Amino acid sequence: MQDASRATPTVEEYLEAILNMSSEGKRVLGARLAERLNVSAPTVTATLRRMMRDGLVTTNRGKEIRLTSKGLKAANNLVRRHRLAERLLTDVLKIPWPQAHQEACALEHGISDKVMESLYQVLGQPATCPHGNPIPVADTLLPVKGVPLDTMAAGTTVVVERISEEAANLPALLEYLEQGNIMPGAVLSVEEVASFAGTMKIRQNDREFALGAKAASSVWVTPVSKP
C-alpha cells in the first residue's frame, strides 16, 4: 500500500519530469512540461497550482518552475524508485533494455521506501540505471555527466555516459541505439556531421550508424582525451 504522505501518481510524474529537465540544465516552463508529459497546457496549470499550494514547486518572474526542498526530496525519492526498478527489470528479470523504462513507470508508484532500500542492497548498490542516469542517494539535484552528442564535431572520439530520460520514453529509439550498441560505456567516433540537418555519422569499431539531430541530442557523452 502506498504511503499516505506521498504525492499522487500524477504529481509524482510532474516531480520526476521537473527534476530530470532541471538536471539536464533545461529551463522548466509550463509549455515544455506539457510537451514532455503529453498533456494540455490547462492541465499543467491546474496541477502546478496544486503543487504550489502543497509547497512542492515555486515559479519566478520568468515563469520558470523550480522544485522546493520538499519537492526535491519527493522527486529524488521517486527517481530513486524508478531507476532501481529499471535495474531490477533488466538485471534480474532480463526485461529488454528498451522496454525497462515503461515497465518501471508502472512499478515505481507502488514501491515503498522499505522495499526501495532492500532493492538497493540486493542489486549491489548500483550507481546508475541501465540507461546510465544516476540513482539519487541524497536530497540534492544530481549533476549530469557529459554533454549531448549533437554538440560534438567530426573527428571527435567520445564515451557514452547516459541516454536521456526523454529518450527512454521512446522504445523505438532505444531499440535503434541498442542495435548500434550506442549504450553507456560505448566508445564512438564522430565521422561526419551534416551542415544542414545535423545528421551525424557515427562509427563504433567497424560499424557505422546515422543519427538524426534529435536522437543525437539524447545521447550524452564525454570526449576522450588524445594522448
Average pLDDT number: 89
Order of helices and strands: HHHEEHHHEEHHEEEHE
Indicate the overall shape: globular
End-to-end gap: 55 Å
Order of adjacent strands in the largest pleated sheet: 3-8-4-5-6-7
CATH superfamily placement of the domain at 147-223 = Ferrous iron transport protein A (FeoA)
Q: Kindly provide the radius of gyration, computed on alpha-carbon positions and rounded to a whole number of angstroms.
A: 18 Å
Main sheet properties: 6 strands, antiparallel
Q: Which structural class best describes the helix and strand composition?
A: alpha+beta
Highest-level CATH class of the domain at 147-223: Mainly Beta
Percentage beta strand: 15-25%
The tally of helices reads 9
Total count of strands:
8
Low-confidence stretches: none
At CATH level 2, the architecture of the domain at 147-223 is Roll
CATH level 3 topology of the domain at 147-223: SH3 type barrels
- Helix content, binned percent: 40-55%
In short:
The protein is built from 9 helices and 8 strands. The protein has helices at 9-23, 30-37, 41-53, 69-92, 97-107, 113-122, 165-168, 171-179, 213-217, and strands at residues 57-59, 65-67, 147-148, 157-163, 187-193, 200-204, 207-211, 219-223.
